[in-house]
Amino acid sequence: MAPPPPPIVAPAPVVFGRIAVRVGRNTTRIQAVTDGRSRLAIPVPRGPRTVSLRLPTGRWNLRVRAIGPGGVRLSRVSRLTWVLPASGHKLGTTQGRLDRRLQADLVRLTGRLPAISGVYAQHLVTGCGAGVNAAAPFPTASVLKAGILLDAVRRPAGASSSLLDRMIIDSNDLAANQVLAIQGGGDGVRGATRVTETLRLIGLREALVRRPYIIEEASRPIPIEATARPALYTNYIGSPLEMARMFVVIHRSAIGGTAARRLGIRPADARRELTRRFLEVRDRTKFAHGLPDGMPLLHKTGYTEQVKHDVGVVYTRSGPIVVAAMTWSASGVGDAVGDGFAADVMRAVVRRLAASGGRC
Question: What digits encode the pLDDT tens for the residues 92-123?
């Protein structure tokens, strides 16, 4: 008997727990091979059909092995695939409920920080979460490159995939300015206005992008009054609450959320153009540093001498959790302080909301 034909693996850069595999005649079992490691083979009915193959959470070079009486065949192409927990596919709720224990933890963390800060966290299945100074507007630095990408995916105007990768994964300011110019038909300021229109469309009332990033340091006016919130001498403004809401839209766009439908972004496009890029952000010094090994994080960091931010969605077994941590000080926020604060916030959130299954 001839060996089964090679299985065909769905070309999905991001999946939630399972991937579709097309198998041919004489296939009796299939087996995932992740980074060269063979997983448990599962039986399948004989005959051509599409089957769903469960995969472990992680980022894998994936191939699938078809096994039959006549031998074994591997899928022809090795695909780089992000596998998120199946719980991440639950739409859950957008209604928040206070978790008092997490609130106390976040108040303690923000209270000892020598800078103005804002924090927001919410379990996206149960709604449980907490926030401190979450509605205060901050200079967002590179966090709002997420909004630029949303606009570029919503209204494709010619930005190349490699350019979008450099903007998000490498957080390159020049790449962001090039994307703004493309979105604005050659005018970066017009492109910034269109990004702000996209932010309004998903319900963000205060977040905005004024103009392209300033590559060289510009002069600033002398502050003449004290303020309880960051001085907004910046072109990129957003609060922890609204930045968290933006990432909820980015997350839900991959599973068919209402806001993403309003933007006209299909789930398959969102997984390829949005989810993949935010999973591959190179900066691992903030939220990522506070996470257990192997827990996927979809996020965007932002940092200057005055600010250290991280905003995104962490995928736990009990469901996704959105987290925003933003800091600002006129005298500067050092890497050790700002990055350590973000990592501590993420540890507190995961310790409380992930361990409890999102209950409050």
Answer: 887 899 999 999 999 999 999 999 999 999 99
* DSSP assignment letter at 186: T
How many C-beta neighbours within 10 Å does residue 39 have? Answer: 17
What is the value of pTM for the model shown?
Answer: 0.91
Homologous superfamily, domain 89-354:
DD-peptidase/beta-lactamase superfamily (3.40.710.10)
Among residues 118, 235, 231, which one has the least CA distance to residue 188? 235
Give residue-wise pLDDT tens across range 262-272: 889 999 999 99
d(CA 78, CA 61): 6
111 and 132 Cβ atoms separated by less than 8 Å = no
Q: Is 8-84 CATH 3.40.640.10?
A: no
Q: Lowest-confidence range among 10-24, 31-45, 153-167, 255-269?
A: 255-269
The helix/strand/coil state of 144 is helix
Matching fold, domains 8-84 and 89-354: no
Q: How far is the first Cα of the chain from the last one, in angstroms, to the nearest whole number?
A: 58
**What pLDDT does 261 receive?**
79
Least Cα distance to 298 among 119, 82, 117, 5 occurs for 82
Helices (H), the chain: 100-111, 145-154, 161-168, 173-183, 188-201, 240-253, 258-263, 267-270, 276-279, 335-349
CA-nearest of 238, 234, 235, 294 to 83 is: 294
Q: Write out pLDDT tens, residues 283-303.
A: 999 999 999 999 999 999 999
Residue boundaries of the structural domains of the chain: 8-84, 89-354
The structure tokens listed for 327 are: 């800091």
Report the number of secondary-structure helices (H) and strands (E) in the chain. 10, 19
What pLDDT score does 126 carry? Answer: 93
Q: How far apart are CA 18 and CA 275, in angstroms?
A: 16
Report whether 351 contacts 123 (CB < 8 A).
Answer: no
Query: How is residue 142 written in tokens?
Result: 């590179």
H or E element in which residue 303 lies: strand 297-303
